[in-house]
Amino acid sequence: MTWRDSLSELKEELANVRAERLSQASDEDAEIEKEREELSRLADSLGVSELLGDMNRTLLDGQGSVEKIVSWDTDEEAGDEFIGEEEEDADVIALILTWDERGERELAIDLGVTDDGVYVQINGIEIRAEREALEPALLQAFRDELEL
Fold first, then answer.
1. Where are the alpha helices (DSSP H) in the chain?
2. What are φ and ψ of residue 81, in 5° steps?
3. For labeling, which of 54, 55, 81, 111 is most exposed (least CB within 10 Å)?
4. What is the largest CA-CA distance in the chain?
5. DSSP reduced 3-state for 96
6. CA torsion sign, 9 to 13 to 16 to 22?
7. Which residues contact 12 (CB under 8 A, 6 or more apart)?
8. 54-102 confidence digits (pLDDT tens)
9. Are the beta carbons of 58 and 142 closer than 8 angstroms?
10. Mean per-residue pLDDT for 35-39?
11. How far apart, in whole angstroms, are the C-alpha atoms of residue 109 and residue 98?
């Protein structure tokens, strides 16, 4: 085989590998988008923002604040700060109720995806991804935060 024939053969092999990699990347992007949509739907269906808003209005007389952080919507710098203990490539929706009561207090609800599927955590404690589990867990987390 001549040098030029070897180069042509390698070029064809390279084109096939590049096409396969491009296809895999496209499939991975589609899967990531699907997971993100699932997380957004879960956050909406659980009514997490509304629950924290209700707690703020009822228990804190509106003195707290509710913040929603969507990891894939943050810029690189903010994303690195937000991720903290999470894996850098993990997609997470965090909703945080913060208030000042003998120091800064917070209730953080994280919705994320792992290899095992979707998870919901309140202040780092995993709960079932159901409204019936979320409501009492939020009340308990509030009590725990204030040491009631």
1. 3-46, 48-59, 76-83, 131-145
2. -70, -40
3. 81
4. 82
5. strand
6. negative
7. none
8. 999 999 999 999 999 998 886 554 444 444 444 456 789 999 999 999 8
9. no
10. 88
11. 12
Q: How far apart are CA 132 and CA 28, in angstroms?
A: 33
Q: Which residue has the tokens 């308990």?
A: 140
Please tell me the predicted confidence (pLDDT) of residue 140.
94
Burial 61-72 (b: 16+ CB within 10 A, else e): eeebebeebbbe
Q: How many independent structural domains does the chain possess?
A: 1
* pLDDT value of residue 38: 87
| Domain of 55, in residue numbers | 3-145
d(CA 107, CA 103): 14
| d(C-alpha 57, C-alpha 95), whole Å | 16
Tokens of 123: 């202040």
Percent of the chain with pLDDT over 90: 61
pLDDT at residue 80 in the model: 46
